[in-house]
Amino acid sequence: DAKTTQPPSMDCAEGRAANLPCNHSTISGNEYVYWYRQIHSQGPQYIIHGLKNNETNEMASLIITEDRKSSTLILPHATLRDTAVYYCIVGGGSNYKLTFGKGTLLTVNP
Amino acid sequence: NAGVTQTPKFRILKIGQSMTLQCTQDMNHNYMYWYRQDPGMGLKLIYYSVGAGITDKGEVPNGYNVSRSTTEDFPLRLELAAPSQTSVYFCASSYTGTGGYEQYFGPGTRLTVT
After folding, report:
1. What is the pLDDT of residues B58-67, one digit of tens each?
2. Does the CB of B63 have a partner CB in chain A at under 8 Å?
């Protein structure tokens, strides 16, 4: 699986957009970019995934660069409940095993 | 749907004891997974299964065993518990198909071995 690099922590003001970056320079052609989050000690929660096109759902938007070497998860209007560890993971396609790194701790401040 | 359920929620074991962590999913997913998460770390894959009767090792399988006799259930067995197995254990399941997939996680079992 390709490895990912994320900042260990970020802060965001409540109501503002949170933009979480991820580098995955060794991603292969059939690998997807997945984002999960983990609130406190709960089980991880799926957010969004994409292959090469930008994606949007009710939770977030995923922007993938044209060369697919990096991506950004956007939470358009962060709330206090979005405080969590966010994991960027590359995998899927023909390989269904995901590798979780340490992720980014996003703290949303009032 | 209940999704992925895990029992027990908490357990304290003495060194050398054994136990089985239960995991059940009601989404008819073929794929199931067991992860462990140590404090401040990401999740590490212990075992996974691609269908009933088929299991395979993940990144950290030593000290654990699994079985998959039904689509719904994927129990994780700890034999001869050691303090290094103190962790939070998460079970997950997924459907696979074209277009990628998402894994659904259970609430976790917090295990302490003393």
Report:
1. 999 999 999 9
2. no
